[in-house]
Design goal:
Layout (H helix, E strand, L loop, with lengths): L2 H15 L5 H13 L1 H40 L6 H18 L5 H17 L5 H31 L13 E9 L3 E4 L10 E4 L5 E10 L4 E6 L13 E2 L9 E6 L8 E9 L9 E5 L10 E3 L4 E9 L6 E6 H14 L4 H5 L13 H8 L3 E6 L1
Parallel strand pairs: 6-11
Antiparallel strand pairs: 1-2, 1-13, 2-5, 3-4, 3-13, 4-5, 7-8, 7-10, 8-9, 9-12, 10-11, 11-12
Pfam family, one: Trypsin_2
Protein name: Trypsin-like peptidase domain-containing protein
Organism: Niabella drilacis (strain DSM 25811 / CCM 8410 / CCUG 62505 / LMG 26954 / E90)
Amino acid sequence: MHEHDNILLTEAVERYISGEMTPDERLHFENLRKADSEIDQMVVTHTLFMQRMNRYNEWQKFHASLNEIHTDLATQGTIDSPARKGKARLAYLYNRYKRVASIAASIAGLTALLVSAILWSVTPKSHNAQIETLSKKFSSLENKSRKQAEEINSLKNSHTPDPKTPEITYSSRGTSFMIDSKGLLVTNAHVIQNATNVAVASNTGTEYFAEVVYTDPVRDIALLKITDKDFKPLPPVPYGFSRKMADLAEPVFTMGYPREDEEIAYTQGYLSAKTGFNGDTLSCQIQISANRGNSGSPILNNEGDVIGILNGRQKDQEGVAFFIRSKNLYNILNEVKGKGKTDTTIQSVKLNTKSSIISLNRTQQAKKIQDYVFMVKVS
């Protein structure tokens, strides 16, 4: 790698660590970390270096506090040794040991030497009580510095893997979208079939652990719950859920993750039949471009209401797809609540019946909706 490339990469690492990257840049860089172990190690090393520099800054503050304590004691007459002599001794020891020891490893040892130097060179032998008090104060500061050094060594030796990037190979994927902003999502049952591990990722690339809390293979609907402690609830979902049947030729659109690059995509089409494959009355047929990753995507009308959940496409006809009508989701939730033995999140959920984006144009609607559409990853 050329020196210029190294400089650019170092700058990128610093921007990534300091949180200065845009969401798209951060997603690209995290993918780069996963693909290149050297870049990932560089991020770990650079993070450790910055932490050490922060520790070094803490030690400098401690060094200054020693001078202040000594000066105060001399001013109060507690000790009778000249301040200049003490400062000169501190400067000599600091400059000497700074050259022969690393910043992290020398914190505790150098602290002890500084304490000994002050007590030996500037404190009168006759003031035993004052010496004991001063020694206790310094010992407390010394213990704090020793703990800091131990923390640095622990960081250097542990290299605990990021819990957001566990060594899980996801074998399939699909799309889901929120029915409750606290972390309850709907997708197709076939998307999570035989799943051992499930994760969902937002349109910014942030990944969360999730679990399957309900599945109905007949209606091809499954409910997921985000269980990740880092997930923060979103504002109320902006779209409504409509029980009504759409009209033939009515415009519809969807947002999902059909592509391998894990980027959310928008697609539009229209209702082409009021029944699904082979006359299935649970679903409808639409003329729209869809791929395997679109399974579980919301189907919305012009008002911003969800009228269904995309669950497949006809392989022998380009642009022909099918979706499960939203009324099936209402029916499932009512059935589950009636049993009273499911997850409390399902028991408390209430589908939004009125869209808050009805007056917005399509571009603005898409911007509001995309934060509530998540990729599903399954292994």
